[in-house]
């Protein structure tokens, strides 16, 4: 195994045969992310930065949040609660009526903080949306793929 910087700014992980196993592109807050089809998302970051991220407190994020595809146009309002989720996987959340059908199909049931990110868990073990903190104090789905999803205070 070897690491190789790419001229585009990404970092490639190579196997013993020199083939790319994963390509990490720059993500939020100086971390790098690699998406592998059927295998999930991998994150590469500075451990010192991870310690800083650990400072996110539950009290900071509990409460109401608007989910939006573009800033200022909410498609759903969720409330992150400081109580255990019924499924035992994180903390509970509540969804306001009138949410975007695509988000309802995802089936948000719980949330948690992991590695400085907010994880919103769906009703299956593999359904997870990861939000990274943005410079403006809001949150954005990471890695960015498909339609954007932002999370901001109302």
Automatic annotation (TrEMBL):
Molecular function in Gene Ontology: endopeptidase inhibitor activity
| Name of the protein in its database record | Alkaline proteinase inhibitor/ Outer membrane lipoprotein Omp19 domain-containing protein
User: What InterPro entries does this protein map onto?
Assistant: Inh/Omp19, Protease_inh_B-barrel_dom
Keywords on this record?
A: Signal
UniProt cross-references to Pfam families, sorted A to Z: Inh (PF02974)
Has keyword Signal? yes
Q: Give start-end ranges for the coiled-coil region(s).
A: none
* Domain of life per record: Bacteria
What residues does the Alkaline proteinase inhibitor/ Outer membrane lipoprotein Omp19 domain cover? 56-153
